Amino acid sequence: MSARILDGNALSATVRGRLAERAAALQSRGVTPCLAVILVGEDPASAVYVRNKVAGCEKTGMRSLKDSYPADVDPAVVFARIAELNADPTVHGILVQLPLPRQFDSDAVLEAIAPEKDVDGFHAENVGALMQGNPRFIPCTPYGVMEMLKSQNVPLKGAEAVIVGRSNIVGKPMAMLLLAAGCTVTVCHSQTRDLAFHTRRADILVAAVGRPRMITGDMVKPGATVIDVGINRLQSGPDAGKLCGDVDFASTKDVAGLITPVPGGVGPMTITMLLANTLESAERSARETKK
Ligand SMILES: Nc1nc(=O)c2c([nH]1)NC[C@@H]1CN(c3ccc(C(=O)N[C@@H](CCC(=O)O)C(=O)O)cc3)C=[N+]21
To answer: Is 167 a known ligand-binding residue?
Structure first.
């Protein structure tokens, strides 16, 4: 049996269609949703992602601002720009592309963004709100994964969910969302003993480690839903230069019941949920000013 493939581009198109309608409705009341993106340095992958975010805004009827700085910029310059964007009522979302160069204290940068414009959901206040079960902004990648599961009616209540990876931007918030949805959640990481013992129990397996093709078919329970959050550029071998996930698609596709591809899976949904958060922020601010 071969797994059904969960097409992130197709789902993105559907969701973005609905977002465009909401953006148009706001527009007719004189408000254009606006995302500000800050990019530091010349990392080519970051440049691609930022370009996709800006293009996504345009196609959905939103505005975007992009500020690029050289890798050796004085952090004070970036902090000053964030303060300006925080104070600008026409800006509804602020995103500082990660990772930042070494001279930056990334946590301090994330805390400098006004929490009500933190569309990444990375500010401590928003992390706390998610943990307490009343999120303000859900981090885009885990948010996209939840939308993917919902779109396929994957049963969540009582399901065994196993997440491989414990990062602040994917693993931890993913655990909170699946927990809130009624899953029994296991979070595995580099110190986990017998990883395959855990992954083989998963009804829902989320791979977010950043190691190319490390989850193989023999680690997957037959019929499981496999969500691949990895985006790795292969350095060598026959597929050098190509993008691949944390899941070995070739050996997993005949075991899983449902699987997300890379590219064309979680990545596009991440950007879609960033647009959703920006729109949501603009709608909230429009409600505030009406009051
Ligand atoms: N503050 C911040 N917020 C982020 O959300 C953030 C970040 N920093 N830093 C980097 C990661 C990575 N990320 C991706 C988003 C979309 C794709 C995506 O659309 N990928 C396409 C392929 C794109 C390509 O060809 O390279 C796909 O999977 O089909 C990938 C990666 C957001 N991130």
So the answer is: yes
Instruction: Enter the tokens of residue 53.
Output: 């975010």
**SS3 (DSSP) at 181:** coil
- Residue 231 counted as an annotated binding residue: yes
CA angle 70, 76, 79 (to 5 degrees): 95
For residue 255, name the pLDDT band (cuts at 50, 70, 90).
Answer: very high
Q: For ligand 1, pick from 5, 40, 49, 109 the residue to mutate: most ligand atoms within 8 Å of CB.
A: 49
Confidence of residue 291 (pLDDT cuts 50, 70, 90): low
* Fold held by 30-114: Rossmann fold (3.40.50)
Active-site hit among 118, 120, 203, 228: 120
pLDDT in tens, 20-57: 999 999 999 999 999 999 999 988 889 989 999 999 99
d(CA 14, CA 290): 30
Q: Which CATH superfamily is domain 140-267 in?
A: NAD(P)-binding Rossmann-like Domain (3.40.50.720)
Residue of 97, 172, 246, 253 marked catalytic: 97
